[in-house]
Amino acid sequence: MKIQNKIALIFTALTAGIILSLSIFIYIFASESISASFFHRLEVRADIVGHAAIEENESLTSIYYDIKQRHLGDLPFEKHRVMKGQADQISKEKLPMPASFYNDLYKSAPARFFKNDTSYIGLNIKKEGKNVMVISSAVDLYGLAEMDNLKNLLVIGFLIAMVFVFTFGKLFSNEVFKPIRLIIRNVKGINALNLHQRLVIDNSNDDIEALSRTFNDMLDRLEITFEIQNNFVSNASHEFKTPLTVISGEAELGLSVPGLPENAAHSFRNIFKESEKLEHLATSMLSLAQTGFDGKKEQWEDVRIDELILSVKEAVDKIIPDNKVAVNFDNLPEDEQKLVVNGNKVLLKAAFTNVVLNSCKYSDNKTVGIVIRADQSYSVVEILDEGIGIPEREIGQIFVPFFRASNTEKYKGYGIGLPLANNIIRMHQGKIEVKSKVGEGTQFLTYLPFRYF
């Protein structure tokens, strides 16, 4: 997930928590206020009913009820239970109130209880030595409707607020990260071919300016390093080959001398053989070094993978005439464009040739299969051998220069072929995956992005 999206989501979540807490507070406060107001209204009516019941004068009783009816009216589902005499008569009523309700009532304190949308109040009224207990109940239909409306309003308001918060959070994070995206786009455009380019620095005196300066400092160091390496490779290519050519030439000349003693001939042959090894090693090392930065000396073009693999097979045939390399074209994609990659044909041929030669060497020239196919983004070349395999713990190191697996003692090599192939594939924005099992063989899966037309 992109950081700007993560910031927008975190901002939305924090705001949602604040708004939700505020909404819950408003809902509880409104509910308590409406409930208290309704209890008070019900108590006023219960008080009138109690005083009317305690009066012995019927005319006064009728006045109480007339006042209630004229000025207060009845509440929805309003009921009153009036009990005179002993308080234990209340327990005979089948009412859902808890014991605390009756305890308050016995103490002459107003008792309140709410259950199943019904409000209950209890009053203990005393007047002139007389005592009545009134338990009244009613349903606050208007209050309940008001709370439902408030709840719907808060939920809808919360959802609308979240949409706006996320939208503005997205716009805010997008604006904040705009300079960083610009830096990323510019850095992506810098490679070994244009290391002289630098990021544009705004004098904003902020973290973005510091990041841009840090990148430019890093590019300065990289450019210097690449120039040093470039000069070394260019000079070493000549300086190494010239004395090696002289050594091998002198050894051949020594071998051509007539009547040369056997021990001297043996020494010359060893010199010639080792000089060839050294020349091959130097050439391989130089090639490996060049793939680390070079790409401007060779022309890149559209390369068909199937044709490239056929040229690899021809090269292997010349080096190992009795090889058992078999190319399988059964899985070629119907769309031929998925076989076309943009790259350097010479380097790609060298990479695949190294892998195939390795498979032939470490399988003692057993069958090596090559399968060409494609997926949604890559042209895929699978190279499968039946060789000695690679120990599982060492697979991660096979692309390290000069590393050789622990089971390769009897095979000659320098540990350069696979690192060279890996560097070339990475230069072409591809990747190599390796699966291997000791004693059964190794599978190399090479992925190269095909050219989009």
TrEMBL record:
Taking every annotated instance into account, which residue ranges of this chain make up the domain Histidine kinase? Answer: 235-452
Protein name in UniProt: histidine kinase
Subcellular location as annotated: Cell membrane
Q: Which UniProt keywords apply?
A: ATP-binding, Cell membrane, Kinase, Membrane, Nucleotide-binding, Phosphoprotein, Transferase, Transmembrane, Transmembrane helix, Two-component regulatory system
What is this entry's stated membrane topology? Answer: Multi-pass membrane protein
Transmembrane ranges? 7-30, 153-172
Instruction: Say if the entry is tagged with keyword Signal.
Output: no
